Amino acid sequence: MDASGTGTTGGLADDRALLGRTSTAERVADILRTRIAEGFFPPGTRLSEESIGGALGVSRNTLREAFRLLTHERLLVHELNRGVFVRVLAVDDVEDIYRTRRLVECAVVRGLGHPPFPVDGLAAAVAEGEAAARSGDWRGVSTANIHFHRELVALSGSARTDELMRSVLAELRLAFHVVDDPRALHEPYLVRNKEILDALRAGERAAAERLLARYLDDSIGRVAAAYARAVDEPAAE
Question: How open is the CA angle 207-104-128, to the nearest 5 degrees?
């Protein structure tokens, strides 16, 4: 796969206005990180400096620095004499992502103050997932699930925690994009996200943490197994 054509830059030209007058590598990296998390650049995609730099209107040096930042975050890999590619995860990576999520997300819920909790963002993500499911858009359900957990972490009010989890969830999306049956993978979590939301709406922080911990513990096995099947099948053909 190759993101070198004008139709395969994930709509980056639409993001050009986000750069403002002070285009920086960090801002470019943030845009690309979001696009990876949303599934516009699947694992294995080669990122063309020419097409992406042209779409965003940034210099080659700025783009290369953004690529270096995302390589450090394990979202991209540089292959000598071939270019920069969106990373393809190993099964161990998927399991480690979920262990990290459990540590961070459960700590966020445990550390919430007194209710009521600001759950509008969570509610919007749940509604987004339910709407996508009704239309049979299971990739959209996956995106809504990422949004739900991003909003959950945002309850901490910590910019550093948000930054950490943006990278972790973007890396997780690399796994989601490979799985060949997204409905089977994501449908059960529509209900579970709603249960966590309802517990937080009711001010039941401890119950929400228990639901979340069970959710993530179950997900480690389910997602890792689905991913292992998906990456093994092409090799077996």
Answer: 70
Whole-angstrom distance, CA of residue 134 vs CA of residue 91:
31
Residue 120's contacts (CB-CB under 8 Å, 6 or more residues apart) are none
Decide: 3 and 41 in contact? Cβ < 8 Å. yes
Distances (CA, A) of 226 to 133, 176, 188: 20, 9, 14
41 vs 206: CA distance, rounded Å: 37
The string of pLDDT tens digits covering residues 200-235 is: 999 999 999 999 999 999 988 888 888 888 877 544
Residue whose tokens read 């540089």 = 78
| pLDDT tens for each residue of 127-173 | 999 999 999 998 889 889 999 999 999 999 999 999 889 889 888 88
Q: Please tell me the distance from the alpha carbon of residue 230 to that of residue 182, in angstroms, as a whole number.
A: 11
162, 80, 151: which is closest to 117 by C-alpha?
151
HEC secondary structure over 26-83: HHHHHHHHHHHHCCCCCCCCEECHHHHHHHHCCCHHHHHHHHHHHHHCCCEEEECCCE
Amino acid identity, residue 181?
A: D
Which residue in the block uniquely carries the two structure tokens 């696009």?
35
Q: What is the pTM of this model?
A: 0.78
Q: Which candidate, 148, 170, 145, 150, places its Cα nearest to that of 86?
A: 170
Neighbours of 147 (CB within 10 A): 21
